[in-house]
Amino acid sequence: MEKVIGIDLGTTNSCVAIVENGTPTVIPNRGGYKTTPSMVAVTEAGKRLVGHIAKRQAITNAENTVYSAKRLIGRKWSSPQVANAVATCAFRIVEGPHNDVRIQLRDRIYSVPEVSAMILQEMKVIAEDYLGQEVSKAVVTVPAYFNDGQRQATKDAGQIAGLDVIRIINEPTAAALAYGFGKKIDRMVAVYDLGGGTFDISLLEIGAHGVFKVISTAGDTFLGGEDFDARLIDWLVEGFKNEHGLDLKQDRMALQRLKDSAEKAKCELSAVKETEVNLPFIISSGRSEALHLQRLIKREDLEKLTKDLVDRTIAICQSTLHEAGIEKEEVEDVILVGGMTRMPRVQEQVAEFFAREPCKGVHPDEVVALGASIQGSALLDESTEVVLLDVTPHTLGIMIVGGYFEELIPQNTTVPTARSKIFTTVRDNQSAVKILVMQGESNRAEENELLGEFILTGLRKAPRGQVEIEVTFEINADGIVSVHAKDLETGAQQSITVTATSGLTPDEIKEMIAESKEYSVERRSSEEFEGARQEAEKLLGDIGKLFPKVEEIVAGSDFGKEAIEKARGVLDRARGALERKDVDALKEQIEALQRTQRMFKGVISKTG
Length: 608
Ligand SMILES: Nc1ncnc2c1ncn2[C@@H]1O[C@H](COP(=O)(O)OP(=O)(O)OP(=O)(O)O)[C@@H](O)[C@H]1O
Ligand SMILES: [Mg+2]
Description:
Elements: E1 4-8, E2 13-20, E3 23-26, E4 36-37, E5 40-42, E6 48-50, H1 52-56, E7 65-66, H2 80-88, E8 92-95, E9 101-105, E10 108-111, H3 112-131, E11 137-142, H4 148-160, E12 164-170, H5 171-180, E13 187-194, E14 199-206, E15 211-220, H6 225-244, H7 252-268, E16 274-284, E17 290-298, H8 299-305, H9 307-324, E18 333-337, H10 344-354, H11 367-380, E19 387-391, E20 396-400, E21 404-409, E22 414-415, E23 417-425, E24 433-439, E25 449-456, E26 468-475, E27 481-487, E28 493-497, H12 506-515, E29 521-523, H13 527-554, H14 558-580, H15 583-606
Parallel strand pairs: 1-11, 11-12, 13-18, 15-19
Antiparallel strand pairs: 1-2, 2-3, 2-4, 5-6, 5-7, 8-9, 9-10, 13-14, 14-15, 16-17, 19-22, 20-21, 20-24, 23-26, 23-29, 24-25, 26-27, 27-28
Helix pairs in contact: 3-4, 5-11, 6-7, 13-14, 13-15, 14-15
């Protein structure tokens, strides 16, 4: 019978599971471990190593050992996150031809999905060894906060590994699935996942009939155990510098050893109150005298060094609850996921924040893979009662005239989903429109991320605003986006599936936005909008006439200057809403305009 495996492709560790006779089970690797380090290395002889054996030789082969590839997957070379990785990683990260990221191991250069594929392939082999049969299908998990490019790149990695990735699911959703599977419960749960590289918080409703509905999800793809390690490393490096005047960071090999022992010490401090980092012959002093690093670390030291990191996770929990309109008290269970949640301080702060003890009995390292395997088996075997209702973590939309961002699908909408809006041309006889597909939360297009673009040509000749174009966004169950544009009159269509990294720098994006102005679209105006427009334009005209006089009168006082600044803001926002044809925003601005007009009239009447 065909089998589907579930793979948790982690930043630091990966895990594979399968449902056997109705029971989800983690598959141990050849060494008997249930998780495998997400590390890849190439030896001097050109041999490729993956997992524990790559980790064991990392110190002596630091330059050719890749860790945390997940932090780089689907990212652009020009992103700050990549710059940060280049500065801190011992292996060589180089620029790819499309503003993408490549990794050099010995004399070969690999794309990030190729490196991730080696890890996926290892997980595939672990499963095949255990099952005694070939496996070709998998459900792979990604952080909920992964964007479209990162999801696509993860799918690509699966393909390179020879796996048909039948579904990508979010890690916290997978965790909730494993937690609620077969339990016949009906409750609201929070999943707090602090792994090696990423932090995620999700709120889910689990229904008695196997329905898992995500209410809200948020996170930080650059906040995880490695940041805790980095704090400890800096502390050790600083201490060593003070004592010996030498910077251990200048020495790749020393740095790798330090990284190793810092992580080890961090993990030990979850169980004991103090531990010692002991690294003999860490560096030579230059007078051929070898120096040792030896230092006692207390749990409190670690807690102090990383306090702001834990606080950041709690702040994200707070804002996620707030945005979802859910009170802390409504959360009936808190599930901890990720190796970092073994740290006592993390557990304490989570318990304190939610005012309840997190639930025991789920294994933080295994729960995500287990959930993926449950989803996999449910996809093959319809009798399994599992319905996953996930949400999209980002707002999706297009750029419209004036460089504004018009939302099509709001953040935290349940997927799969499809939404349409109608747009029109902005010039007479405009023959083409260019649709820039973006994601993000800013109403300025340039501040959001460009996912892709396409042009719909051959529009009929007509005055501005008369050609109607319907734009439809679709998100499938993997969270992957496709977009169509259709000329409602002629039926002409264009569509794209948003592809992996667009490979553009922020400057190039700005340039593209500028170039595509000619081909812009705008919102189709409604009667309601026309009414509001007349009112707003009248107010704008009136206020415009009063402006110079009022400005002159109040110019002397700080208070007056402030009032003028505010009024300018109101005018700008009103003009923006007009340009975007945004009815709701315009109505809001009309009220603000009316207040401004009253204020202006008051100033003038007082001074006679
Ligand atoms: N006992 C422990 N105490 C503290 N931290 C630990 C402990 N065990 C593991 N960790 C840390 O947990 C992190 C790894 O967690 P995990 O394996 O869940 O991450 P991951 O799934 O690879 O990452 P991500 O989910 O971010 O992609 C590492 O930073 C590791 O040092
Ligand atoms: Mg994880």
